[in-house]
Amino acid sequence: MSELPFREVPPKRSYAGKKLSDYRRYKDFLAQDFENRCGYTYCLDFWFGGKPNFQIDHFKPKSKFPDLETDYDNLVYSCSFVNRAKSDDVGSYLDPVNEDYNTHFYRDELGNIYPRTESEAARYMYIRLKLYLKRHSIIWMLDQLEQRMFILQELIEHSQNELAKSLLVEVTMRYNNYKRHLRAIQ
Question: Where is the HNH domain (predicted)?
Fold first, then answer.
């Protein structure tokens, strides 16, 4: 089994404007800083119905740290599955911005997430946040497929291989039909 990086682009927190009175008003900034991906799973928000269906996690729970409720440095763009699983727990968590998740987690070739055995926090998060759920690997695989389709399309545009062009058209049509179906039910 080969180990693949957990994520390609680490999130950041770049908002430097005035402090907002309602943490929900940071959502657009968080989506941009987190590249529209869950800070904990690296899943793209598109597969959950886009930004309206993503949530804002308080890294340190607002119920226990009310003074951090609107602190941008305490907010994480998150899918609902992880945000609900984390809830008000103050266990051993790794901040997705301040920690390199690639040193704590890895993926296999099917996109399954695994904690590195030497990282106690990663092992805790793996269980508590249910990072083992199949949905995370399926979404990762769909992202990988789409990225490879774009690369293949560029390569084919510069070649004369008609079979490759035909296969790309077929795969792209099936993939796009699936995405269209998902958009229609959102």
Answer: 42-87
Contact 33, 14 (CB under 8 A): yes
Q: To which residue do tokens 């790794």 refer?
A: 94
Alpha-carbon gap, residue 155 to 152, rounded angstroms: 5
Q: What span, in angstroms and rounded, lies between the C-alpha atoms of 44 and 164?
A: 28
Of 111, 174, 105, nearest in space to 138 by CA: 111
The answer to whether residues 38 and 78 touch, using CB atoms and an 8 Å cutoff, is yes
Q: What is the pTM of this model?
A: 0.86
Residue 185: predicted pLDDT: 61
- Report the run of H or E that residue 55 belongs to, with start and end: strand 55-58
The residue ranges of the chain whose pLDDT is under 70 are: 1, 182, 185-186
Q: Give the pair of three-digit tokens for residue 66.
A: 């009310």
Task: Give residue 119's pLDDT.
Answer: 98
Query: Strand, helix or coil at 114?
Result: strand
- What burial class does residue 145 get, using C-beta atoms within 10 Å of its C-beta: 0-12 exposed, 13-18 middle, 19+ buried? exposed
- What pLDDT is stored for residue 1 in this prediction? 67
Q: Which residues fall within 8 angstroms of residue 48, CB to CB, at 6 or more apart?
A: 54, 79, 80
The conformational region for residue 140 under phi > 0 = left, psi -120 to 50 = alpha, else beta, is: alpha
For residue 137, the SS3 value is helix
Residue with tokens 């990663």, as numbered in its chain: 122
